[in-house]
Amino acid sequence: MAKIIVLGAGLVGSVMAKDLSKNHQVASVDFKEDALLPLSKLGIHTIHADLSDSSTIERLIKDYDLVVGAVPGFMGYQTLETIIKAGKNCVDISFFPEDPFELDELAKEMGVVAVMDCGVAPGMGNIILGHHNHQMEISDYECLVGGLPEIREWPYEYKAVFSPIDVIEEYIRPARYVQSGQVVTKEALSETELIEFEDVGTLESWNSDGLRSLIDTMPHIPNMIEKTLRYPGCVEYLKVLRTSGFFSYNEIEVNGQMIRPIDLTSKLLFPKWQLKEGEKDFTIMRIHIKGKENGKEVKYKYYLLDRYQDNTISMARTTGFTCTAVANLVIDGQYNKVGISPPEYLGEHFEFVKSYLEDRGVIYNVTTS
Q1: Which CATH superfamily is 3-120+314-368 part of?
Q2: Which helix (H) or strand (E) holds 25?
C-alpha cells in the first residue's frame, strides 16, 4: 500500500482521493475546510493548508510516495516545480499555461517521473493518439470534447467544474492546430461549427488550445486539431464579454481602486456557472484518427458519452479516473520514464487505462473503417 497525497480537494481532486483510497493510504490537502469535510467523513486523512506556499508543499509531501496535483492552473507550474525539487514523483491535471518541458531537465536531474495534463482532454485523448502512433502512420487527428450540464439554463447554458479563471483561459488563450504540417494559430472561440451527436443533439464546436504538447511531440502528424464543444449560442455571449474587456488581466482604475477585469468577471460568473447540489452533467468526446496501418487506409473513431452517476459529476469521473489510472502505473513502477511526460508518452499503457476506466463506468466506444 503506497502513500499518496492529493493537492487540491475540489470537484476533481476529491474524486481522485476517494478512488485512490480504495487501495492506498491517501491524504487530501486544500485551503477550503468545507471541501475537506466530506473526505474526512469517509476516513481519508485531510490537511487544511495554503498550497500557494512552496515551503508548505515541501513540508507536506516529504513522507509520501507519490503526489497528485489538482490545483488551479495558475498555481500548477509553480506547484509542479516544487514537487520536482522535492524529488517526488507526480501525476498532475492542472491545465497551466506555461511550457511544462521547461521543467524536464530539472525532473531528470532529480530522477523524478512527472506526468502532466493527465485528464480527459488533454489526457485520455493523448493516450489514445499515442497508442495508435505506435501502430500506424497517422495523417489526421481530430478531437472534439466538452463537459456540459444536462439542463440548459439561460444565459450561458454552461457549468464549470474547474476554477473559473481556468475556464476563462480557454476563451482567451490563442488556439493552435496543425494543418498540412504547419502550426496555425487562431483566436479562441473561432471557426465555429454545428455538429450533431447521437443522444445529445446539436452542439457547437470552436477552436481551443487543447493540442498542447502534441504539437511538439507528434511533429510527423500533418493534421491535428482539437475543438471544444458547447451548446449552440454560448460562444456569442463569450465573444461579447471578451471583446468588451471582461476577460482582461490588465488592471483598470475603478473609484480609486485598481482591479483586473478577469477577477471581477470570475467573481460574477462563478455563481452562475457553479454546479449546484444534485445538478447533473455529461462529458462528450469524439476522436477521429486516420492513416495507414499494415499498408491499408484506416480510420478509427472513438466516442465517449459519460453521464453523472454514483453521486459524482461526469467531468470529475472522466478527468479524475484517467489521472488515478496513471497514478497506479507510476506507483507500481509500470511507468518509470524520468522527466516530464505528457500523456501521449503512455500510449503503450492504453489498454490498462481503458480497462481501469471501464471498471468505473467510463466507456470509450471504438469503431474502425
Answers
A1: NAD(P)-binding Rossmann-like Domain (3.40.50.720)
A2: strand 25-30
